[in-house]
Hints:
The protein is α+β, with helices and mostly antiparallel strands.
Amino acid sequence: MSESVGLLFSAIVTFSTLVGSGLAVLLLRETRKMRQAQTDPKIDVSYEVREEFIAHVDVVVRNIGLGGAYDVRFEAAPVTDDHETRALLAELFQINFVRSGLRYLSPGQQARSFLTNVSEDYRRKLNCAFKITVSYRNDKGRDFDDDYCIDFSELIGLRRVGEPPLHKMAKSLEALQQDVHLLAGSPRTRRSPATRS
């Protein structure tokens, strides 16, 4: 009977050791993945509406990862295959960093450029959509590929209420500058040669 209890106890210990080893391997894999995620780049490609004019749209490329991105390259293909989408893609590839790529994009760094004015032929432009594929590598030479869809139909119905604060400040400064010029040029503020003594 004591031999049976000893065998049972040995089996339980062996099983517990195997389960513990398996959990340790899983934990090690997860730790590696987390460490890799903390050092890998992640390139995000999107569009942004400019603050100064709601119809002006920029293309924005950001490294939202925690590692540097090397040899960043872009390819694009129309989703809505029409003349306006192809014209937008031609505009996109006139931007040098899109056409030639970026040698390096550090964590948090971005590259942005004006893409188009959607108020020009807006009915067609707001129906345009295209896919951008961005390829890059990390500092260890591992390759990454990400796909993004730029769909201008998301801008339909977009409205801005009020005026952006920076615009108000700029207008106020311009008005102040004009007032100063008027005061500086006003005959009442200058002393005539007869009154000088």
